[in-house]
Design brief:
The chain is mostly helical. It has 15 helices and no strands.
């Protein structure tokens, strides 16, 4: 009898602890730094959805749509209503391949053609604007991707615009390749690179990537050329980016020494 009472007390005490812990956890979730986007109901107002896309990002809002809600949104976009078309365009940047295709169909847009190796940079940039970076990045076969990377490295402004346009739809590996291509172009067209590159990429673009060089001497030589090129920028509008870039470039030699064992 005593053992049963003791066991009952232990279970009740444990239950109380779990309830308190769950309450504390719920309270923590109830006061986040930024509220989670609410599930968008089937009868969602297009202006409200567009505002949520701007606030939380297209990827998160797309994920918050359950199947019935997604189908409702697609059907409303197909009506051609301007506000719903804005929702469709807004959602496109945060959608996977299947969802992107559904949006293209709803927006009555043609599927983007496969970009050939001899792609014109202006045509590619136009396709990125029209279809989104994610879909265009996915349409590049390997040879075409390497062709794009090599042309971004030349520092040609039209190809730099292609590189910057593709950044928003690239995974980690592709993003690294694009940033390193912009880094190579920095020596040739420093002003254009710092002007076009997104703010969040400046440090990465201006950091020396050891994968690009066979020897310490080769890496240091590139670093000196980049410092000279960036130092020559005299556009006051780029002063902040120039300062950030030079800071990264001047710190690179010690990292290169450590990597190459010098």
């Amino acid at each position: 009898m005593f053992q049963n009472s003791q066991r009952l007390f232990s279970l009740s005490f444990l239950s109380l602890i779990l309830i308190l812990a769950d309450t504390a956890h719920s309270q923590t979730l109830a006061d986040p730094l930024e509220e989670d986007p609410p599930l968008i109901h089937i009868q969602g107002d297009p202006e409200v959805i567009s505002e949520k896309i701007r606030k939380h990002g297209a990827g998160l809002i797309r994920a918050s749509l359950y199947s019935a809600g997604w189908n409702y949104v697609i059907q409303q976009i197909e009506t051609g209503d301007k506000k719903w078309l804005e929702v469709g365009v807004g959602l496109r940047s945060g959608s996977d391949l299947g969802a992107t295709h559904s949006l293209h169909m709803a927006l009555l847009e043609e599927d983007p053609p496969l970009i050939h190796i001899q792609g014109d940079p202006e045509v590619i940039s136009e396709q990125i604007r029209k279809h989104g970076a994610f879909l265009i990045r996915g349409s590049l076969e390997y040879a075409g991707w390497m062709y794009v990377i090599q042309h971004i490295e030349t520092g040609d402004k039209k190809w730099l615009e292609v590189g910057v346009g593709l950044l928003s739809g690239s995974d980690a590996g592709a993003t690294h390749s694009l940033q390193m291509a912009l880094s190579e172009a920095l020596v040739i067209s420093p002003s254009e690179v710092l002007q076009l590159a997104p703010e969040y990429t400046i440090e990465s673009v201006c950091s020396e990537d050891v994968d690009n060089y066979n020897t310490y001497e080769e890496a240091v030589a590139k670093n000196k050329k980049a410092i000279k090129a960036v130092s020559s920028i005299d556009d006051p509008r780029l002063n902040k980016r120039k300062k950030t870039c030079l800071k990264e470039l001047n710190e690179s030699p010690k990292h290169l020494k450590s990597f190459y064992g010098e």
